[in-house]
From TrEMBL:
Its cofactor is Mg(2+). Keywords: Magnesium, Metal-binding, Transferase. This is Polyprenyl synthetase family protein. Its EC number is 2.5.1.-. Gene3D superfamilies: Farnesyl Diphosphate Synthase. PANTHER family: ALL TRANS-POLYPRENYL-DIPHOSPHATE SYNTHASE PDSS1 (PTHR12001:SF69), GERANYLGERANYL PYROPHOSPHATE SYNTHASE (PTHR12001).
Length: 332
C-alpha cells in the first residue's frame, strides 16, 4: 500500500506525490541527524518531539513550493528541515508557557523532565536550525531570523493581551498571523528560494502561507472544541479548561444575547471543574459563536486560495488549493 501524504493530500498528481514522499523521507532522515548530539541526554531530549511524529506540514509546504523551481536542488530538503526544526523549537517553549502536560499524545518535554530542560532543548533546536540555514546563504538566515522575531512578537502580544480599546478578536487574529502564519509563510518562501523559483512565486507562496497559517490554527482551535476524540493530539476542550481564549470563546464572550448568558458566565474563568467544563463545552459547541468562527476559518482559507492566482497552473498549485479544502473540512 502506498504511504499517504500528510494533511490529507489524497488526490495529488502521482508524479508529484512520489517526489513529495521521497522528499519527506529525506527530511525525516535529516531531522534525526540534526537532533543528534555527542551528549546522549541532549539527543534524547531533542528527539522527543521528532519521535512523537506530527503533521510535518511545514516541510511539506516547502517541498511543494520547491516544485516551482529546481525540484532536485540540494538546498530543498535542508530548507524544509530548517522550517520544521524552528517549529519544533517553538513547541518546547510553548509547552513551558502553557504548562502543558501532553504534546502529540505523549508527555510534553517539560512534564517528562522539567521546564529548564524543555527551554534549553528548544534553544538547542533553534541553534541547529540556524546552523543549517547558514549553509543555505544569508537570505535564508535573514528569513529565519525575521520569522523568529515575528514568532516571539506574536507570543509576547498573546501573553500581554490586547491593549485598552483594542478589539480582542482583531488582536487574536493578528497574534495567529505572527505565531503560526509567519512560519508557514517562511516555509513556503524557503522552498521557493532554495529551488531558485522566481521571486514572484516566493512572494505569492509566502502570502498564501501566512493566510493559510491563520486558517490552520483556527481549524485546530475549532477541532479542539468540536471533536469527540483526541484527534488534535490533546484532550478535547483543553483550551477551554485552561482558560485559553480561542476565537469561538472570544466571539461568545462579546455576544449580548440572553441565550448566551450562561455560556458567558462559564467562560469568564478557567473551567477546572469537570461538570462545569462539560456544560460549557456543550453550550459552546451549539452556540452561534461556533458558526461565526467557522465562517472566519472559511474566509481565511479562501483568501489564501486567492493568492494562488499569481502562480502557474499545474500539480503543485492544485496541491496548494487542495490544502485549503482540507483545512476547512478537517474541523467540520
Amino acid at each position: 500500500m502506498t504511504e499517504a501524504l500528510p494533511f490529507g493530500l489524497s488526490h495529488v498528481d502521482d508524479a508529484l506525490a512520489d517526489r513529495l514522499r521521497t522528499g519527506l523521507d529525506d527530511v525525516e532522515v535529516a531531522l534525526r541527524r540534526a537532533v543528534t548530539s555527542e551528549y546522549p541526554f541532549v539527543t534524547e531530549a531533542s528527539s522527543h518531539l521528532v519521535s512523537a511524529g506530527g503533521k510535518r506540514f511545514r516541510p511539506l509546504l516547502a517541498l511543494v513550493a520547491a516544485q516551482y523551481g529546481d525540484a532536485d536542488a540540494p538546498g530543498n530538503v535542508p530548507g524544509a528541515v530548517v522550517a520544521e526544526l524552528t517549529h519544533l523549537a517553538t513547541l518546547y517553549h510553548d509547552d513551558v508557557m502553557d504548562e502543558a502536560k501532553l504534546r502529540r499524545g505523549a508527555p510534553s518535554a517539560n512534564a517528562r523532565w522539567d521546564n529548564t530542560v524543555a527551554i534549553l532543548t528548544g534553544d538547542f533546536l533553534f541553534a541547529r536550525a540556524a546552523d543549517i540555514a547558514a549553509d543555505l546563504g544569508t537570505d535564508i538566515v535573514r528569513l529565519q531570523a525575521r520569522t523568529f522575531e515575528r514568532l516571539c512578537t506574536g507570543q509576547i502580544r498573546e501573553t500581554v493581551g490586547p491593549a485598552e480599546g483594542e478589539d480582542p478578536v482583531v488582536h487574536h487574529l493578528e497574534v495567529l498571523a505572527g505565531k503560526t502564519g509567519s512560519l508557514i509563510a517562511a516555509a513556503g518562501r524557503m522552498g521557493a528560494m532554495t529551488s531558485g523559483a522566481p521571486q514572484s512565486v516566493a512572494h505569492a507562496i509566502s502570502a498564501y502561507g501566512e493566510k493559510f497559517g491563520v486558517a490552520f490554527q483556527l481549524s485546530d482551535d475549532l477541532l479542539d472544541i468540536a471533536s469527540e476524540s483526541e484527534e488534535s493530539g490533546k484532550t478535547p476542550g483543553t483550551d477551554l479548561r485552561e482558560g485559553i481564549r480561542t476565537l469561538p470563546v472570544l466571539l461568545a464572550l462579546r455576544g449580548t444575547d440572553p441565550e448566551g448568558a450562561r455560556l458567558r458566565e462559564l467562560l469568564a474563568e478557567p473551567l477546572v471543574d469537570d461538570d462545569l467544563h462539560a456544560e460549557a463545552l456543550g453550550l459552546l459547541r451549539s452556540s452561534p459563536a461556533m458558526v461565526e468562527a467557522r465562517a472566519e476559518l472559511v474566509s481565511w482559507a479562501e483568501s489564501a486560495r486567492a493568492e494562488l492566482a499569481a502562480l502557474p497552473a499545474g500539480p503543485a498549485t492544485d496541491a496548494l488549493s487542495m490544502m485549503c479544502d482540507v483545512v476547512v473540512d478537517r474541523s467540520a
